[in-house]
Specification:
This protein is of the alpha/beta class and 274 residues long. The protein has a domain at 1-86 and 166-178 and 198-274: P-loop containing nucleotide triphosphate hydrolases (Rossmann fold, 3-Layer(aba) Sandwich). The chain contains ten helices and ten strands. The chain has helices at residues 46-53, 77-81, 103-113, 118-132, 148-160, 178-195, 206-212, 230-235, 237-242, 247-261, and strands at 3-12, 20-30, 35-39, 61-66, 69-71, 87-90, 166-170, 198-202, 215-220, 223-228. It has a six-stranded mixed sheet, with helices on both faces. It has a four-stranded antiparallel sheet with strand order 2-1-4-5, with helices on one face. A hairpin with a 2-residue loop joins strand 9 (215-220) and strand 10 (223-228). Helix 3 (103-113) runs parallel beside helix 5. 38% of the residues are buried. It binds adenosine-5'-diphosphate. Adenosine-5'-diphosphate binds at residues 12-13, 20, 22, 40, 42-48.
Length: 274
């Protein structure tokens, strides 16, 4: 599904002393079937942007188009709610939202709420479990008896069960060890390869950006500061520096891009003290 935001403004607590312009004239497109990463400092507007796409927020000014549906300041909540069937969202630490007494009930909770046919969903469970790397034996267990990694996979399965046309991931690997991060990212990568779901991922892990994203969107102070392929973005040294990303992350990205493109980044100073 194609997604386009046109001159979207989102202002929290407008016309009060606490007014914050979280999105300031944002125009951006996400092509059907693409895998995009949204990066930027904390507070730059990343979450506000994606929560327009899943229908939680609407613009104060401007419009967005999700497939053939337009969302603007006058769009009713009910119409925005319809997006939940098409747009799946994996929030940060999604395992914190598990609450049912069995894994099966937790996976089926979202689809049930969104009005999916439960018998069809149940038939698809074995395949889904395999895709998220869980054994069928977990279905009758309490999600709270699982390991952290298994809990996250359970929560992710609940979103993937709806086979959303658009999948939004908000730092999906936060808090996992490197092995867990790799496993979760390959799960999404595999899903994207097979289903061609449009994926929009917020992340601070630059290695994930360079390895998986086809397009990178850099946000700063509520605006789109840059947009391009990972190497186009990371070539723009001084601007990327201004993002204040961690040095170890930048080093990893550079090494990766050097390997992939044969380009040298000797102009970057990467002293360990920096
Ligand atoms: P990011 O995801 O990049 O960290 P956010 O979209 O969460 O950024 O926030 C953008 C700006 O909007 C920040 O200044 C933040 O404090 C403000 N903001 C976010 N959510 C709310 C809210 N519910 N009420 C008021 N201000 C908010």
């Amino acid at each position: 599904m194609n997604i386009r935001l046109e001159h979207v403004h989102h202002i929290f607590m407008e016309k009060t002393p606490f007014e914050t312009k979280a999105l300031n004239d944002v125009t951006v497109s996400f092509e059907d079937g693409s895998f995009s990463a949204v990066i930027g400092k904390t507070g730059s507007g990343k979450s506000t942007l994606v929560q327009h796409i899943n229908g939680l927020y609407k613009p104060n000014y401007g419009s967005l188009f999700i497939g053939d549906q337009e969302i603007h300041s006058k769009t009713k909540r009910k119409e925005r709610k319809a997006l939940r069937k098409k747009v799946g969202m994996v929030f940060q630490y999604p395992e914190h939202q598990l609450f049912e007494d069995t894994v099966e009930k937790d996976i089926l909770f979202g689809p049930k709420n969104a009005g999916f046919h439960l018998d069809d969903m149940k038939k698809k469970l074995p395949e889904l479990l395999e895709k998220v790397g869980l054994d069928e034996s977990v279905l009758e267990r309490s999600p709270f008896d699982l390991s952290g990694g298994q809990m996250r996979r359970t929560a992710i399965a609940g979103v993937l069960a709806m086979e959303p046309e658009v999948l939004i991931l908000d730092e999906p690997t936060a808090g996992l060890d490197p092995e867990g991060q790799e496993a979760i990212m390959s799960l999404f990568n595999e899903w994207h390869r097979e289903k061609r779901t449009t994926i929009i991922m917020i992340t601070h892990q630059m290695e994930e950006v360079s390895r998986l994203a086809e397009t990178v969107i850099v946000m700063d102070d509520g605006r789109i500061q840059m947009q391009g392929t990972p190497d186009e973005i990371f070539r723009r040294e001084s601007e990327v520096r201004a993002l204040e990303l961690d040095v170890p992350e930048r080093v990893k990205v550079l090494k990766h891009i050097e390997k992939e493109t044969g380009m040298s980044f000797s102009s970057w100073t990467l002293s360990p003290k920096e």
